[in-house]
Amino acid sequence: MTQVIQETEQPEVKRRTGGRSARVRAAVLEHALFELSENGYLGFSIASVAKRAQVHETTIYRRWPTREELIMDAISEFTNSNLQLVNFGSLAEDLAFNMRSIANLIQTPIGSSLIFLGFTVSTVPEFKVLMLQLWEERIRLGQHIFEHAIARGEWPEHYNQYRVFSEVVGPILTHYFLLQRPISEEMIQQRVQSILRDKDNFKIKD
User: Could you give phi then psi for residue 68, rounded to 5 degrees?
Assistant: First the structure.
């Protein structure tokens, strides 16, 4: 079985173009991810991020009053840059691409850190709320491929979005983190076919 992607030493964080403010923001968010990956949530330090990004701490606090807000902005920027919306004209192709993107993301050091972070910060109320907001955003963005499929007649108009999301993401996380097995193209195609076969089970009953 072939692995979709191998881990890399450092994540590729896409930088925004623009003026100084945009460059500062990009630098802070990038180094916030490195800080989070290396030291985790409990060891995360805004002072360290400022030193890495070569900016003053006050510059960071003006934009992100709390470390939770900085962390969540960095995570959101990273996931939005790495999980693209596509429309190949086929739900099977769109789903497979989406799953490959998720697989590639979680097999990077940053991606792995973010997943573990999501499972370990439930005792921090502020961060728990922000993490739930992030997942809600990912669910909302992920529905675009199903909206295209509905327009093509490939998918039921009224369906359980949360159940679909768990069927797309859940098995990938289980396979990689719990079973500690590489995510193969074969596994992705099996998951796609399973979702397509069960599409009527995702309908919301009247």
Answer: -65, -40
